[in-house]
Recover the amino acids of this structure.
């Protein structure tokens, strides 16, 4: 369970996130939606202990990320691609993370197979396409077999087959009682994947609730989104 309460963060006097509160329940895929600069990444970075809030809290299973005893076993994250040194081979990148977190080596091969990179495990990451890099990032997030996944734009760069694979994987992950928080710009994809949505605009929550309730009476999630955010959508 993820609980964000009264979270506030300013950069240079401007609020990137302004007193936002929402919860992310177990057993559901929760989509985190918002236009460019709305505050999604800021929220996720604070949640994962990569930045500090000015006020409020972002808790994972009741604790700030830095107080988690076994962070990789609790929450897997994908923020900015695979996070690997480009010269490193995929298998070595994951082995390095596994070893520093007391995760057995066999799990590296399990997650590589799981994300469809088993056949290219010995390739250098710099030879990977954007989509392969995203899969490697997801493999890293899954190493500790976490209960919670936090993914920032995980389908960026994926081809249609890759997008479908991520969707099916995340739906299955949540169906086993686990928790997914997923940010994306892609409305159609979000409408197909999420059970719950949190819409953020200009650092504030514009809507939060079940996807079917939020879209009721509207032709699509995209229509709701533009109505809520006042965004005309040219940059989407
Ligand atoms: N390290 C930083 N220093 C200064 N300003 C920042 C920093 N990080 C974010 N911001 C600003 O905070 C606001 C929110 O940015 P954030 O990256 O959280 O938005 P986002 O919703 O993730 O957008 P995008 O979809 O474009 O990634 C923006 O105005 C951004 O310019």
């Amino acid at each position: 369970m993820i609980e964000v309460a009264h979270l506030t963060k300013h950069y240079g006097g401007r609020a990137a996130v302004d007193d936002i509160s929402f919860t992310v329940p177990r057993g559901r895929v929760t989509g985190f939606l918002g236009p460019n600069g709305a505050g999604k990444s800021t929220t996720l970075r604070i949640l994962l202990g990569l930045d500090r809030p000015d006020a409020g809290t972002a808790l994972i299973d009741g604790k700030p990320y830095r107080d988690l005893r076994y962070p990789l076993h609790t929450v897997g994250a994908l923020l900015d691609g695979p996070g690997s040194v480009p010269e490193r081979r995929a298998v070595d990148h994951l082995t390095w993370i596994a070893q520093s977190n007391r995760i057995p080596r066999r799990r590296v091969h399990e997650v590589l197979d799981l994300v469809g990179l088993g056949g290219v495990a010995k390739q250098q990451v710099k030879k990977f396409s954007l989509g392969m890099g995203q899969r490697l990032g997801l493999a890293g997030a899954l190493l500790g077999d976490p209960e919670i996944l936090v993914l920032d734009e995980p389908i960026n760069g994926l081809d249609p087959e890759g997008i479908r694979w991520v969707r099916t994987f995340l739906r299955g992950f949540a169906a086993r009682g686990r928790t997914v928080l997923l940010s994306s710009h892609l409305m159609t994809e979000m409408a197909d994947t999420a059970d719950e949505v949190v819409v953020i605009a200009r650092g504030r929550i514009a809507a939060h609730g079940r996807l079917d309730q939020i879209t009721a009476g509207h032709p699509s999630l995209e229509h709701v989104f533009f109505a809520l955010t006042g965004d005309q959508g040219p940059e989407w």
Summary: The first strand starts at residue 2 and ends at 11. The chain has a mean pLDDT of 91. The beta strands are 2-11, 14-24, 29-33, 55-60, 75-78, 148-152, 179-183, 196-201, 204-210.
